[in-house]
């Protein structure tokens, strides 16, 4: 499967068929995890955790036998780096037929932190079950998808702009059109799709349009993880180099500059 197909077919899987990961799939995942990098150069350390052994569960997940989580040092941009690296794993898992769901809220965080032996200097933002999708979704899963309109996304005109935030970006070639489509279909917490992109001076500037009430008490921002996911999809399609230098384009209130990708 190519990246576009992976992105378009992936969905959060919350109902699994109860089988453990096949040995060959688990070893492919472990190998892949070792090689995951992100353009921030911030190490993201993954762990596979047996659900039964560690007593792990989530009220929205059924039939899972295993979880993946990751830890990162408490450094600036750790959320974006985490989103980028974890999403790489999510897409690779899907290429093997393994379902995932990003989980940052609906879990007993302390249980997972204990199982992952999280230190004071570290953050463990999210977890995901890993397993094979059941043939039928649980009623709760169907309900959840409806509640957050999980099969829908904002239109390109609402997300992507040229030079300023009032001119929609019209991609002139297929490569850019595909890259933006891959960003559009990225997963985000409560499907809020907070990413905005402004193309200016030959570069693509990524902004976060904050949804109120998302800053965690512990001092990290779930929506910056969404931004890392968007960067992952975009850079997979377009390549480019990441830099952090705010171009000073006037953005609306609550909209924060995150990063620039120069091709
Ligand atoms: C950072 C992040 C955190 C999330 N946290 C949760 C969560 O706690 N519980 C949950 O059921 N889904 C969670 N999701 C999954 C989103 O609800 C889901 O990606 C979105 O509704 C789009 O649906 P899709 O993944 O099927 O395309 C999270 C997604 C992201 C990116």
Task: Describe the secondary-structure layout.
Layout: H1 3-9, H2 23-35, E1 44-50, H3 51-54, E2 66-73, H4 78-95, H5 109-115, E3 122-123, E4 127-130, H6 139-147, H7 156-159, E5 160-162, H8 174-184, E6 195-200, E7 203-209, H9 222-238, E8 241-243, E9 255-262
Parallel strand pairs: 5-6
Antiparallel strand pairs: 1-2, 2-3, 2-4, 6-7, 7-9, 8-9
This protein binds flavin mononucleotide.
Q: What do these coordinates show?
A:
With 263 residues, the protein is an alpha+beta fold. The chain has two domains: 3-140, NADH Oxidase; 156-262, NADH Oxidase, CATH 3.40.109. The chain has helices spanning 3-9, 23-35, 51-54, 78-95, 109-115, 139-147, 156-159, 174-184, 222-238; strands spanning 44-50, 66-73, 122-123, 127-130, 160-162, 195-200, 203-209, 241-243, 255-262. The strands form two sheets. Strands 5-6-7-9-8 form a five-stranded mixed beta sheet. Strands 1, 2, 3 and 4 form a four-stranded antiparallel beta sheet that branches. α4 packs across α9 and α8 runs antiparallel to α9. Residues 11-12, 60, 101-106, 126, 144, 148, 150, 187-191, 222, 225-226, 229 line the site of flavin mononucleotide.
SSE string: HHEHEHHEEHHEHEEHEE
Task: Report the CATH architecture of the largest domain.
Answer: 3-Layer(aba) Sandwich
Number of strands: 9
| CATH T-level topology of the largest domain | NADH Oxidase
**Proportion in β-strands:** 15-25%
Low-confidence stretches: none
According to CATH, the homologous superfamily of the largest domain is NADH Oxidase
Q: What radius of gyration results from the CA coordinates?
A: 18 Å
Query: Mean pLDDT across all residues, rounded?
Result: 96
């Amino acid at each position: 499967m190519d990246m576009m197909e992976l992105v378009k077919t992936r969905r959060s899987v919350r109902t699994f068929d109860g089988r453990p990961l096949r040995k060959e799939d688990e070893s492919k995942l472990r190998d892949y995890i070792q090689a995951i990098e992100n353009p921030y150069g911030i190490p993201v350390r993954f762990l596979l955790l047996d659900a039964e052994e560690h007593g792990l569960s989530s009220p929205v997940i059924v039939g899972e036998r295993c979880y993946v989580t990751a830890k990162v040092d408490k450094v600036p941009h750790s959320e974006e780096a985490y989103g980028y690296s974890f999403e790489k794993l999510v897409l690779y898992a899907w290429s093997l037929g393994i379902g995932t769901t990003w989980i940052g809220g609906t879990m007993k965080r302390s249980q997972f932190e204990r199982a992952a032996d999280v230190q004071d200097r570290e953050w463990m933002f999210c977890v995901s079950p890993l397993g094979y999708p059941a043939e039928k979704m649980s009623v709760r899963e169907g309900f959840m998808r409806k509640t957050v309109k999980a099969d829908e996304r904002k239109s390109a005109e609402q997300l992507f702009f040229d030079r300023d935030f009032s001119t929609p970006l019209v991609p002139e070639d297929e490569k850019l059109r595909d890259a933006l489509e891959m960003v559009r279909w990225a997963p985000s917490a409560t499907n809020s799709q907070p990413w905005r992109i402004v193309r200016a001076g030959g570069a693509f500037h990524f902004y976060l349009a904050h949804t109120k009430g998302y800053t965690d008490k512990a001092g990290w921002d779930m929506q910056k993880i969404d931004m890392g996911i968007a960067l992952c999809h975009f850079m997979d399609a377009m390549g480019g180099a990441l830099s952090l230098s705010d171009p000073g384009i006037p953005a609306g209130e609550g909209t924060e500059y995150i990063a620039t990708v120069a091709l």
